[in-house]
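Journal club side-thread
Mid-discussion, someone asked how the predicted structure for our own chain would compare to the paper's figures. Pasting it here so we can look after the session.
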Amino acid sequence: FELNGFLEGRGGARPRDDAHQRKASLAETRLQLEAETHLSAVSFRLTADLLYDALADRQAIDLETGDGFVDLREANATFSPTNFADAKLGRQILTWGTGDLVFFNDLFPKDWNSFLLGRDREYLKAPSDALKLALFSAWANFDLVYTPRFDADRFIDGRRVSFFDSARGRIVGRDAVVQVDRPERWLGDDEWALRLYRNFGAYEGALYAYDGFWKSPAGQNPLTGRSTFPALSVVGGSLRGPLGSGIGYAELGYYRSGDDRGGDDPLVRNSELRALLGYEQEIARNLTFGAQYYLERMLDHGEYVRNLPLGSPARDQNRHVLTGRLTWLTMNQTLEWSL
């Protein structure tokens, strides 16, 4: 039996006034406790955070959104049903893909509020209530993740972080908190995620597939005005390995918007094609440089524009960003820049 944990306090303030947010952005004390025990054939793991958040609107516990004074991060059992398979059942943190803080074949929930407010990076990954089955062979390895009820992102909704609302044409925050209709049927609103991967010499290649819903709101109910999570299917692939004196990687993903296949519904996000190129290299002792280029292309853009209401701002067909990172490992310090 092992028991670990930490106690921390975090605070933050906005350097300039936001008409729709508090001056303070973060004021919390957190105690994380992590317990793990190993029996003959099964390992059990429990990780929970006890949180006092002085800026929270309410302290009632909501394990889906992470609100309240308890955030259950992990509660799972791991076992091996055969000598070529591992299984993990319960609440767990899941991730895969090659990108550095860019995720598009990784369709597991993220906590974007935590990331933007300045919490530790581990809190960018939100938990999933799922079954993960890993199969191993000499030819390739296969991962299957089944989530019996949709796990959404802990998305930006205006309560803690402001955002640009295209419908209103301005930045909004606590004055226009996003209200959602979330898919909540057990076994009916489920998710499937697959990964097939293997090594080709020094390179690792992977294929991905996902069937579920957009992880953050990507649609709107025209009758109620509430935001929705339309159906989504994703297929993609990645390759990572040596390139010159460093490591290069590439990733591609095709997003098929199941509720707007023709791109002619302005209230549902269009299908998309996403691509990522990245490179990292140690440029001095314990000093690593990394850069990546990310492209997101809207499909059926012409149909999208033709069906916009008069006077609506047209969304760009392409969005792209170049990001870089310098990491000094000896001091555990990271300097980031982006364009």
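Post-session note: Helices lie at 112-117, 301-306.
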